[in-house]
Amino acid sequence: MNEQHLARAARQLIEAGRYISAHGWVPATSGNFSVKLPDGRIAITVSGTHKGQLTERDIMLIDAEGRALDERKPSAESLLHTSIYRRYPEVGAVLHPHSPNSTLASRLFPDRIVLENYELLKALDSVTTHEARVVIPIFPNDQNIPHLALCVEEYMEMHRDVRGYIIAGHGFYTWGATLSDALRHVEALEFLFDLEIRLHGVRKP
Q1: Alpha carbon 176 to chain centroid, angstroms
Q2: Which of 25, 30, 37, 199 has a beta carbon 3.0–4.6 Å from 97's, enabling a disulfide?
Q3: Looking at the predicted structure, is the pLDDT value of residue 204 above 70?
Q4: Is residue 1 scored above 60 in pLDDT?
Q5: Residue 94 near residue 81, CB atoms below 8 Å
C-alpha cells in the first residue's frame, strides 16, 4: 500500500509540474514540489529536474526532517517543505514555483504584500469574503537554508494564518490540504501578485 501511495503522489507531482511549467512559473530547473504520504514520508522532486518534464524517477522520498531515504539528492530547500508540514499538520502538499510575478513583486515591495478586497481571495482556504486581509511576507533570500527555514518558522509562530510566502528575487511557497488545493493557491496568488504589481505602477508618483 505504501508503494501505491508513492506512485499516486508521483503521478500527481508530474501532472502538477506540467501544469505549472505550461504557465511559465518554473523556468529551467527551478522550483520544487512535494506531497506528504499517509505514513509521514514526503515525496519530493529531485534536485535539478525540469518540472515540466518530470518522470517517476524524478520523485524521491525524504523523512520528516528532510533527510533523503534513497541515494538521490532532494532539493536543497527540502527543509522549507518539512517546516510547513510540521507547522500545519493538515497540509498534504507544498508547491514552490519561481513565478515572474512573485519574483518581481519581491523587488517592488519591501517585506510583505497585503492582499485585500479581492474576490479571488476566496480561492484561499478558510477565506470566505472579499473583505479579508491576507498578508504574504517576503523573506530575504539566503543560501543558508536552515537559517532561512528558521526565519520562516519564527514568523509563522507569530502569525498563525500564513497562506504563503515569497523569497526575495526567488519565488514563492504555498500549500494546501491536497495538491489540487495547493495548485489553486498558486494560481490565485500569482494572479493577485500581478494585480498588486500593476497597482504599484499606477500609484507610483
Answers
A1: 9
A2: 25
A3: no
A4: no
A5: yes
Per-residue pLDDT band at 203 (split at 50, 70, 90):
low
Per-residue pLDDT averaged across 43-56, rounded? 94
Residue 205 has pLDDT above 80, yes or no: no
Fold classification of 2-203 is L-fuculose-1-phosphate Aldolase (3.40.225)
User: What is the rounded CA–CA span in Å between residue 148 and residue 155?
Assistant: 11
Distance CA 101, CA 143 (A): 22
Domain boundaries, the chain: 2-203
Q: Tell me whether strands 133-139 and 164-167 are parallel, antiparallel or unpaired.
A: parallel
Measure the CA–CA gap between 94 and 52, rounded to whole angstroms: 17
Could you give the CA distance from residue 110 to residue 165 in angstroms, rounded to a whole number? 13
Spatial separation of the C-alpha atoms in residues 27 and 20, rounded to whole Å:
10
